[in-house]
Here is the input.
Amino acid sequence: WRKPLLNFLTTADDRTGALEVAGTIADEGFSVTAGSEITGGDCLVVDLRTRHASAAAAAQCVRNVHQTTAHARCHKIDSVLRGNWPHEVKALV
Here is the structure.
């Protein structure tokens, strides 16, 4: 069994961030799947629910999710820099 190749994999630390980025991507004409399962489409947006997690747990969650094969990956950072974004970005890089 082989997972499909995504064009974009995007993560966010909370639901509002995930929905915001999913809407922006959809506005550009891409098909977006929100959730944790790849069901087809151009982009998967995942709410990691790490806003209030420990820094180590947040980083590990990013590493786990971003093992999925994708042409491009990104992580939505909160606009007022709440959460564990420094640890999440470091884990992504």
